[in-house]
Amino acid sequence: MPPLRLGVNIDHVATIRNARGGDFPDPVRAALMAVEAGADGITAHLREDRRHIRDEDIASLMAALTVPLNLEMAATDEMLEIALRHKPHAACIVPEKREERTTEGGLDAARQFDALAPMVRALGYAGVRVSLFIEPDVAQIDAAIRLGAPVVEFHTGRYAHLDGQPRADELRRISDAAALAARNGIEPHAGHGLTFENVGPIAAIPQIRELNIGHFLVGEAIFTGLADAIRTMRAHMDAAR
Ligand SMILES: CC(=O)[C@@H](O)[C@H](O)COP(=O)(O)O
Ligand SMILES: NCC(=O)COP(=O)(O)O
């Protein structure tokens, strides 16, 4: 089976920092520690409301990292300008609602096709690998194909919050979607809400090449330390593969 990369999302280190202002804990320090512990890349979501990652974090991450940075961003002119200025390895276009607690669903790439097309093109021309954060849905994959996106990331939030047969059904949807994307030359990734308990079946989907995991790892770090949490996640992923 092809290798499975782990992208560690450090957003919620910034959430803790921002709770008190100042610059502690530093998400860049967490990112470097994550890499040391085995992360293959770092993910950071610069939300429009800057509730966790801020503009200066992106600049600092770009300067400090020796592994790929995956910048998660809404499909806005402001975010496009920031992505084109920094040129991270990858930009994952995500849906954003200012009042949401977290990213509640996938990007509606099918409906937003006309707005996304110039953005995907501009990022691609700049050498940024574009990813679309979508539901595991045929219409969305079809839109990603027509947009020429090289990567899709399937939103695993629904899977993560289900149990029993409904979870098995959602897993099947993700697995079928990954196979369809791969058959069409798109690299499938997955993420959102993944934990030690639920990561195995997602990691076992052979076409999936990268998982992006954040909130659980930062929470688990309180109990075992960030490096240990990442190493254990890596072990769960490898065992499933
Ligand atoms: C798109 C995505 O799934 C991540 O960016 C994650 O959502 C980060 O955490 P918040 O949603 O809490 O900002
Ligand atoms: N794209 C998903 C991501 O980066 C991390 O999501 P979560 O593990 O913080 O839920």
From TrEMBL:
It comes from Sphingobium fluviale. It catalyses: 3-amino-2-oxopropyl phosphate + 1-deoxy-D-xylulose 5-phosphate = pyridoxine 5'-phosphate + phosphate + 2 H2O + H(+). This is Pyridoxine 5'-phosphate synthase. GO terms for biological process: pyridoxine biosynthetic process. The active site is at residues 45, 72, 192. CDD domains: PNPsynthase (cd00003). The gene is pdxJ. 1-deoxy-D-xylulose 5-phosphate binds at residues 11-12, 47, 52, 102. 3-amino-2-oxopropyl phosphate binds at residues 9, 20, 193, 214-215. Its EC number is 2.6.99.2. The lineage of its organism: Bacteria, Pseudomonadati, Pseudomonadota, Alphaproteobacteria, Sphingomonadales.
